[in-house]
Design brief:
Strand content: 35-45%
Mean pLDDT: 85
Oligomer: single chain
Low-confidence stretches: 1-34
Shape: elongated
Strand order of the largest sheet: 1-58-57-56
């Protein structure tokens, strides 16, 4: 096509031909430039999902990336673009087919099944935390934590009026529920009931044990459940008489929310998954087959014969309340990606709180890969580092974690330090033969280990008293970065270390990278370069619009850096930096960089993994 147009142009005079071709070439380069940008991959999927709301056969799910909806009972999800911004959803409900959603800052209403949204916060107190929606007939009630009361609307949120307080001034309402014509409110010491939508209140827990504190309330049909410090109780007469309902539950186990599926009642918990009762709530049994995580605090949605539960890693679906499958196709949520590694034909990523995922098609599909990531029966979901070393993958976790190893490209994992108390760990590969691991023990002490034999044995070393953020290798020298501007150097494979700190830098040295004889350092005060193995440093920040340099990555003679303002590139050893973030969402941190032979990948908080062809940036 391009040659044909040029040939036609050459039939005219040479001057006009030159101008036409030059204009055409400029236009083509302009169009190409506008198309050269980052694109979002399809994941990793999941993240914290819930609360839910159902309108007909459409189910809505709140996330930290707005609201998603599904028309096929949760099999696939689509983000509701009309709900703009990244917001933490606190509550959702429906009133006569109208969808109501509370974010961390405001209350919204949709009259067209989530396509468009209106802010209906006017009339509510400012700077509130909207804890729950309760519906009585067509009346909408919202529990306001800071105002310590309810606001009532009879016109689907157009206008609001404060309910009266029937509790003492020194009592704080923490949880609430609605059942039939009654509104319930629980304080630290009492349970109150209102028969007139918040106009009058009375205490209704006479048959509960003395000194009872109600931690959660929930209603299913005509049954009102209360989780207390004495166990779970149920009332069949609107709260007058209570009977014990905690058989099968451990001491101190709270049921958070409830739903009915068929003839059974299901309840979710904070740390024990889902429980089911087939005898109207008198006794309970765990129903967690297929539920990878036990953090199921975000509630249920019932759509037809299917039950959805929201967890800290996404949505799970069941048609019998007990056998669960991961059901997050399309949900790209708050999933900070911490590290990438290549394993065979697969790209594997670790996340900060969502476990591990892998893809075989550059991110078109992400598969959860969490088999074996447990300690003492608890799912280990937060990882900070991932490396590929001698045919195996090694993932380092934080918060009661360890270092896990996979010999089959991330499909299964094994704990390398079973039984050892570990607060957090990190792991770094340096070159093709050296691996370092830092482990913080239960006393908060940092221990650094070195291995060069496929991590079957370790030698303990220690380059300093601070946490280590990065390692790098230059010839026979090893470098490690730490806090307060400190960089350590070793010339004997890590046995002994010498400080080669960066002058005038008093913050963390977050990253190191080597290109030939140049050592680059990314700090919270900007980027620095040393050409004499750390003996001297110079600041290289021209073009950087933010000086918090989290990551550095060398590709040939190119150096990439990430800041809060996106991804930057230098081709002249840091003399100048160019922003190459076109297409990335503004204002969201880029957590990590990784280069395949053809693409540069990055993790973006709230938005998953993104990619861009390297040829667009370094050709």
């Amino acid at each position: 096509m391009f040659i044909t147009i040029i040939e036609r142009a050459m039939k005219h005079d040479s001057h006009r031909c030159f101008r036409s071709v030059a204009s055409l070439v400029s236009l083509l380069f302009f169009v190409s430039g506008t198309q050269a940008q980052w694109v979002q991959t399809n994941g990793p999927l999941g993240g914290s999902v819930g609360p839910f709301a159902v309108v007909g056969d459409r189910v809505f799910a709140g996330t930290t990336n707005g609201i998603f909806s599904s028309t096929d009972h949760g099999s696939t999800w689509k983000r509701q673009d009309g709900f703009h911004g990244v917001r933490y959803m606190t509550a959702m409900t429906t009133v006569g087919g109208t969808l109501i959603a509370a974010a961390s800052d405001s209350v919204y209403r949709s009259l067209d099944s989530g396509i468009t949204w209106q802010n209906i916060t006017k009339g509510l107190p400012p700077n509130e935390y909207h804890a729950a929606f309760l519906v009585i007939d067509t009346t909408l009630c919202v529990q306001e934590i800071f105002a310590n009361t309810f606001y009532i609307s009879t016109d689907k949120g157009t206008t609001w009026n404060a309910a009266k307080k029937g509790w003492a001034a020194n009592e704080q309402v923490w949880v609430s529920a609605a059942m039939g014509r009654y509104l319930y409110a629980a304080t630290d010491t009492s349970l109150y009931r209102s028969p007139d939508k918040g106009q009058t209140w009375a205490i209704v827990k006479d048959s509960l044990p003395k000194l009872t504190t109600v931690s959660t309330l929930g209603a299913v049909g005509s049954r009102l459940f209360a989780s207390t410090n004495f166990g779970v109780f149920v009332s069949l007469d609107s709260g007058k008489v209570w009977s014990f309902s905690g058989q099968g539950l451990s001491e101190g186990q709270y049921l958070l929310s409830y739903a009915r599926i068929g003839s059974a009642i299901v309840a979710c918990t904070f740390d024990s998954g889902v429980f089911v009762s087939s005898d109207s709530g008198r006794s309970w049994s765990a129903a967690n087959t297929g539920l990878v995580t036990k953090d199921a605090r975000y509630g249920f949605a019932v759509v037809g014969n299917d039950l959805l539960v929201g967890t800290d890693i996404g949505v799970f679906r069941s048609n019998n309340g007990g056998n669960w499958t991961f059901s997050n196709s399309g949900i790209i949520n708050y999933t900070p990606v911490s590290a990438f590694a290549k394993a065979g034909d697969e790209l594997v990523v670790t996340t900060r709180g969502r476990g591990i995922y892998r893809t075989t098609n550059d991110g078109d599909e992400w598969i959860p890969s969490n088999a074996g990531l447990t300690r003492d029966g608890i799912f280990i979901s937060e990882f900070i580092d991932l490396i590929q070393y001698k045919g195996s993958l090694f993932a380092a976790s934080t918060y009661e974690g360890s270092i896990f190893r996979s010999t089959n490209n991330g499909i299964n994992w094994t704990d390398l330090f079973p039984g050892r108390t570990i607060n957090s760990s990190q792991i770094f590969s340096v070159g093709s033969t050296k691996v370092f691991a830092t482990i913080t023990d239960s006393l908060g002490l940092n221990n650094v280990f070195f291995s060069n034999n496929a991590l079957t044995s370790w030698s303990q070393i220690y380059p300093g008293s601070q946490s280590i953020f990065s390692f790098a290798e230059m010839g026979s020298s090893l470098f490690a970065s730490s806090s307060f501007g400190l960089v350590f150097r070793s010339t004997d494979e890590g046995n002994r270390w010498k400080i080669v700190n960066i002058p005038d830098v008093k913050s963390y040295v977050l990253s190191l990278a080597v290109m030939g004889s140049n050592l680059f350092a990314g700090t919270q005060d900007g980027a620095y370069l040393s050409s004499d193995e750390g003996a001297s440093w110079k600041e290289i920040n021209t073009g950087l619009t933010d000086k918090n340099v989290d990551n550095l990555l060398v590709i040939g003679t190119n150096v990439f850096a990430t800041t809060i303002d996106g991804v930057f590139l230098t081709k002249d050893n840091g003399a100048t930096w160019v922003n190459v973030s076109a297409g990335l969402p503004a204002g969201l941190p880029v957590s990590v960089l990784y280069a395949s032979p053809t693409h540069l990948f990055c993790g973006v908080n709230f938005r998953g993994v993104w990619k861009r062809p390297l040829s667009e940036m370094i050709q």
